Amino acid sequence: MCGIVGIVDVNGESISKDLLKRMTDVIAYRGPDGEGQWAEGAVGLGHRRLAIIDLSPAGRQPMADAAGTLIVTFNGEIYNFRDLRRELEAKGHSFHSQTDTEVILYAYKEWGTSCVNRFNGMFAFALWDKTRQTLFLARDRYGIKPLYWYFKDGVFIFSSEIKAILQHPSMRRAVCLPALNEYFTFQNILTDLTLFEGIRLVPPAHTMTLSLHKGAVPNLKRYWDYVFDPQDSLNEKDTENRLYELFVQSVQRQLMSDVPVGAYLSGGMDSGSIVAVARQSLGRFMTFTGGFDLSSASGLELGFDERGNSEFLANLLKTEHYEMVMHAGDMEHIMPELVWHLEDLRVGQCYPNYYMARLAGKFVKVALSGAGGDELFGGYPWRYYTGLNGNDPDDYYKHYYSFWQRLVPDSEKQQLFKPAVFQRIKDNSMFDIFRGVFNGQFPPKKHDDWLSASLYFELKTFLHGLLVVEDKVSMAHSLETRVPFLDNDLVDFSLRIPSRFKVKEIAKDINVDENSIGKRRSYELKTNAGKSILRKTMNRLIPSHITERVKQGFSAPDASWFRGESIDYINRLLRDPKARLYDYVEPQYVHEALDDHCSGKHNRRLLIWSFLSFEWWCRQFQN
Question: Most buried of 45, 88, 197, 577, CB within 10 angstroms?
């Protein structure tokens, strides 16, 4: 796990190593164990190293092959690299390190750009091919590792983080208004845009090539996608058996490391199952849990502290367990630092995750996470109900789109944005962007298809947003987060599992507001429909009262805190007439949202969090 940067000037201008060093220095926390810069003519690559596999100097990057014709800078882990290495050695390739980085070089030499189809892991890398005078970039299937790029006037810049690209003297910091519209619609950005005008995110499962000749432009190509192909011939017991085998295999694969490995342990099924397998393989190891001070919480928020369940599992599995408790004022203290690291605002109130990564980073370099289980196996049934409650594909898209306008509906955009901003974004259809995510795989024709379509959408958008955020909050503390549910073999099999095994009959009469606190709990108290096959499978690893219990996501009691202990902080920022976000949005809309929340009339916690985040984004990144 590392940080990568690079520049190619197709006009032929030489690249400065000093500039490359400035770019790597600004993301030094991603790789405190070493650095490297390589430049030759109009091409330059840089690297910051977080040493996980082969801690010796042989693992330094940028790394070249023996002939010196290929140079790579790589961020991530290729979990099947030893198998690939044996295959490549059988074809005559020789290796000089024990790294997965070197396997990328010779995999490219042997199989060309199609090498990415053989990698099982999380990765973002750039490889300069001197012979072909071509830069080749790639991002993993699921988007676990980010890769940003900028291209203008023949200058191509890329990096693991946006702030490194901003070091280039040609960069102008302007807000991308279409991206801002997406963010305040979905609390996410569904396209490849970012809030920085001109800077884009390479989509998951894509490669990019750029040739070094005047007039060349980047060429983006998708190499994989989620394809749902439910096999009706599968029976439930055989599915459980195969799912169990693949899950255990995935966790064991992702334990490879030459440094200490730990895991987050929420007290729920997904993280608990990961820890159970890891514990069998590694023996005693470290687990980490976050809890919340609930003295000022109320209602459903009183069930938000999962420390009791995590302590039960830690005791059962005999892990070395560490906890921290978060309080209302903790958000205030961390926001400037957090937004500096996030850069690319995405889903959720992630300051608890930032604190948890800081805790884990004090003890280990690698932490296993349960991300992906909900999106693959149907963990959000109250969402799917919205889309399924229709009569045809058009109804499906219309209903599901109305649900995913998480912050501000289209009907209120003119009240939200300043007139000049609204004029520039008013013709930018959020519904077209939403529907475009489905990529022609659908329209769904029957309810099973609609459920698969919903899972597809959430894997491509919501999960991707979570992964981008997780990368930023963990790497801020020089911590590598791994996600065993996102193993190629496990994912491929999950796409073949019939929908009826994942989600029981969805209760269409149970309507749950996505913006509400405790949405999962309020739904599952009435029907525990989600992740049925996964629950049955994980009973082999952890007690049934854990697999069957009503699950609560990792969320602070912000609805109460935003009305109580945090309100002075919120008012100082958002009721200040000189607040930076008011260059783009109307103060009256923000103030009314605050009044609405504080009165208890509606829960606007997601929108308030997004206003706070955007205010700090403006302060941190606007000139």
Answer: 45
